[in-house]
Each structure stands twice: as C-alpha cells, then as structure tokens.
# Entry
Amino acid sequence: MILPIYLYGQPVLRKETENVPKDYPNLKQLVDNMFETMYNADGVGLAAPQVGLSIRLLVIDADVMGDDCPECKGFKRVMVNPEIIEQSEEEITLEEGCLSLPGVHEKVSRARKIRIKYMDTDFVEQEEEIEGFAARVVQHECEHLEGHVFIDNISGIRRQLNKGKLNDIIKGTARCSYRAKAVGK
# Structure
C-alpha cells in the first residue's frame, strides 16, 4: 500500500523517534508499504517519520545508483533501531534532495565512511561498514530519526535562498508526483 509522504513543516519530521519494540504490530507489512511508497516516489531511502511514524525504522534501495556508484549496487537494507557508531573524519560534499522537501536540492557534507549497528526485521543484530554514496543515503535517513532534515546542514544564506520553496511546501502548493501530506492538508 502506498502511504502518503509527510512534507516539510509536518511536526513528525522534527520529532526524535522511539525504538521499535520486538512486538511492533505488522512490522514486515509496514516495511513492504514503505518500500512500495519509496519506489512509487522514485526515492532511494525512506525513514518512518516520512510516513508519519515516530519510530526508528528506515528502508533503503540504492541499487539504481549502482552504475555511477559501485558501492550502491545491490545495496538494499531495512534498518530497525539503527545507530551510527563510527564515522570517518573525511567528508564528501554532494547535492542531496529529499522526498519530504520536493524541489529542494543542496550540497551537503557527510562522512565518507560509517559503521552502523541495527536490527533486521527479525531483530537479529547487524553491524556493517558502509562508504561512499551508500553511506550518504544511510546518514540522510538516520538524520530523519533524530528529527532533522538535510537542509539543517546548509548555511543560513542557502536556507534563506530556499525560503520560497520551503514556504510553498508548508502551504501545500509545492508540486510532487507522489502522494504527499502537507501541513495544511
């Protein structure tokens, strides 16, 4: 089932999330719905707050980036209660966008390499080292779980330059090609 994607201005996007308990109802169905929602919106990652849930859950499928970024080839993950436990000092600056901020794209610096710990949907602990663009996607989605969005990482001047677009998103007049839930809608 395709869920509405919550857009910038929705309070859930600014709320720190809670850990997903082992007995969370219909977790695997929610994961399937999140993947379907993400694919429908042509995204490569989606965090639970983006579908209105304040839980530590994200889905990623960066395989579509595999031709340009070999580390993304076959990179499909479900991360329950993820925690970045290490990140490199070396950063890479690249342009990012977000399904919750349609039409907004800005350059953001992120760690080139991370180590992350998380549970899979069977609550088996996983730990892995991720680098390059795949690490960027994971960091972007993990930020959502802390109540942040990628524009929090840009300068005040760049944010000011995007003020019109951000106001359009909040007012519900920004265009996007997928099912969305704006503040006033």
Q: What stands out?
A: The mean pLDDT is 97. The chain has one domain: 5-181.
